[in-house]
Design goal:
binds iron/sulfur cluster, five-stranded mixed β-sheet, single chain
């Protein structure tokens, strides 16, 4: 079941159809055509779970498929960014470029953004658009800070005699891109099964909070980054996605709630507390929200 309601700015929920025909709040929170495109992006009729649905926690996907949940149209704007970019670029994909094709196999289906001659002379590059936060970008790029001695020592106070340090950025840290890597590698497998060779996988990541001081403090100095994704073995990817597809299928046919999402899938509870659209239907989500409310 796709989302059936929108969450308004004032916290009320309204059936999407009702919102599109009349806003009871006096003035719409965004233009009607934008709301229509957000509604359309939510209404995907797929006969098997998509790559992105399988990458999410199984409990989250199960609840999204079975519960009449509500979404904040503002948050969904980022999700429709890919479609918007395609529209802007329509007519500019000439040459050896294929865009937005849905491919499927016996496990899942996925729609890749771009394939072809998109970053260099190789015409075998698979590309994906992302709109993301400076925090996620900093982690994805492997940026981290270290303390570097300045050569001076503290002359007074509690730290007297200890060396002074300053923070310096390093860019060779672990790149936290596992979910993006699983997604692109699955698209790669689908393309290769269809007879297309894939030499490189690249994400074009647009930073949505680039203009804020916070982004500069995270060493994000450009609005857009290209991030290369490494190959993961076909065997591992297919095994992982097939196990998740089976778990979801079993839960759907037996109508039982799957185990809670893994710590990584639930962003170590941050998602349950603030970002999961189906948290109100999830016992763990309700608990985490109570914990968050008590701490506030
Ligand atoms: S236009 Fe925005 S504020 Fe009005 S009903 Fe729809 S979601 Fe709510
Ligand atoms: S609230 Fe947390 S555990 Fe529950 S479905 Fe959402 S992400 Fe998963």
């Amino acid at each position: 079941m796709p989302a059936t309601q929108f969450k308004c700015k004032n916290g009320n929920k309204i059936p999407i159809k009702q919102c599109l025909s009349h806003c009871p709040n006096g003035q719409r929170c965004m233009f009607l055509p934008t709301l229509r495109s957000v509604a359309e992006s939510l209404d995907r009729k797929l006969d098997k779970p998509s790559v992105t649905e399988l990458i999410s926690g199984t409990r989250e996907t199960y609840l999204k498929k079975t519960q009449p949940y509500a979404v904040d149209p503002m948050q969904q704007l980022y999700a429709v960014h890919g479609t918007a970019v395609h529209t802007i670029q329509e007519g500019h994909n000439e040459g050896n470029i294929i865009a937005e094709e849905r491919l499927a196999d016996d496990i899942t289906s996925g729609k890749f953004d771009l394939y072809g001659q998109i970053v260099d002379l190789s015409d075998n590059t698979l590309g994906d658009y992302k709109v993301t936060s400076s925090y996620k970008l900093m982690k994805a790029l492997g940026y981290y800070k270290v303390d570097v001695p300045t050569g001076e020592v503290y002359k007074t106070g509690l730290k007297k005699g200890q060396p002074k340090t300053r923070k310096e950025w390093r860019t060779d840290g672990v790149k936290h891109v596992l979910e993006w890597a699983i997604q692109l590698n699955y698209y790669r497998i689908l393309l290769e099964q269809a007879g297309f060779k894939v030499k490189d996988m690249v994400i074009q990541a647009l930073c949505r909070d680039y203009s804020l001081r916070m982004a500069a403090e995270r060493n994000i100095t450009r609005p857009l980054y290209l991030i290369k994704i490494n190959k993961i073995s076909d065997h591992w990817i297919r095994w992982y996605m097939s196990a998740k597809a089976k778990k979801l299928k079993r839960s759907m046919s037996e109508h039982h709630l799957p185990a809670r999402c893994s710590a990584r899938e639930r962003w170590h509870d941050r998602k349950c507390q603030s970002y999961c659209d189906v948290a109100e239907f999830c016992p763990y989500g309700r608990l985490m929200k109570r914990v968050a409310d008590r701490a506030a």
